[in-house]
Design goal:
Two copies of one chain form a homodimer.
Chain A: H1 3-14, H2 21-28, H3 41-65, H4 70-87, H5 89-95, H6 104-121, H7 128-150, H8 160-176
Chain A binds a DNA duplex through loops.
DNA sequence: CACGACAAACTAATGTAGTTAGCTTAAAAT
DNA sequence: ATTTTAAGCTAACTACATTAGTTTGTCGTG
């Protein structure tokens, strides 16, 4: 299996910050320097992990919106976002650690996610700029909840499924209700 | 200056993940092993950083709510959250990396933040459990936006101040509007 | 005043990780 | 048949964290 796929699996098991070249090499049954024939050191591996993760996340979001529209589509994508992070926690972490956020490919992949979300917002008929603000809100809600949950940031006492359900509901109501 | 305060400053300058004992020692004009007289190695330093960061954040949130109530108080606290992360990005990162989320002191400090937010939610007269869900939403919105912004996750083209203002507005409208 | 305890520094040594340089080998391309 | 390339390797170097054991000064107490 490729170095990046191996590293992604490893990340999910031990966390992104514990993905070392040593561990990847060991898992591949190979010596550390051999990896340098495939990735540009640890920074290069992390960049490729980030790229892979962003693209995978986008696929999930796209899949979640198929056959749904407006509120249902947004809700479905938010749940897909959470599922992705739960299934691939290490890979998701990697998406947040692109060494250089200016990297062209990374930016393109991120832009693709923005387009995905923009598409499901079309039924709302927002002005383009307004829709971009909403996309940022969407990502904030999804990332915020899901990363706090993954980090164990929520106490144990209360059902997190219900918390997420309600947060989604608040977000959607906020988008619709124009009072205030 | 204390080891933890020095490390916190350093974290803000170079990022939490680049806080090494070597760098802290160098800044204090001391050899690395000397730090072991003050903190329990790197894990111990990180734990103390997390604790310090959580408590500082709580102070900020409390300060922001003084003399405000309901919507204004929540809005003010969300802005304070963002200010804190902008001023002390490394220290904030530390709050998310408590080595052991079960740690008693860490849990108490986190609980104090929850209490702080619960206090400003009192005017809403939520049931206790409902209020807890809202607190999670509050933290998700704040953390989500602010950490994506800090990670350079938002493109450059659009004003982030405006995005945050709107997200807050959506959140508050969502809390009030009961349609759906 | 002397002595012991303690705080806080130090040196030395060990282990792990990332990186680079340079070598080997087998398969693919010319 | 020869060259190129892909993919592995060893060896050596650096940085960092950690532990063990040592030194030194201060401070309180007998």
């Amino acid at each position: 299996m490729s170095v990046v796929l191996t590293a992604a699996r490893l990340a999910d098991e031990v966390g992104f910050e514990n993905v070392t070249l040593a561990a990847v090499a060991s898992r591949l049954g190979v010596r550390i320097p051999s990896l340098y024939n495939h990735v540009k050191g640890l920074p290069g591996l992390r960049r490729e992990l980030a790229l892979y993760g962003i693209r995978e996340l986008n696929k999930r979001l796209q899949g979640a919106a198929i056959g749904k529209e407006s509120d249902k589509a947004i809700e479905s994508m938010l749940y897909a976002y959470r599922s992705f992070v739960r299934e691939r926690p290490g890979l998701y972490q990697a998406t947040l650690h692109a060494p250089d956020p200016q990297d062209r490919e990374v930016q393109e992949a991120s832009q693709a996610i923005i387009e995905t979300v923009l598409t499901v917002l079309e039924p709302f008929h927002f002005k383009y700029e307004d829709a971009l603000h909403v996309v940022r809100g969407f990502r904030s809600v999804a990332h915020g909840f899901v990363s706090l949950e993954a980090a164990g940031g929520f106490g144990l006492s209360l059902d997190t499924d219900e918390s997420y359900r309600r947060l989604i509901s608040v977000f959607l109501r906020g988008l619709h209700c124009s009072s205030l």
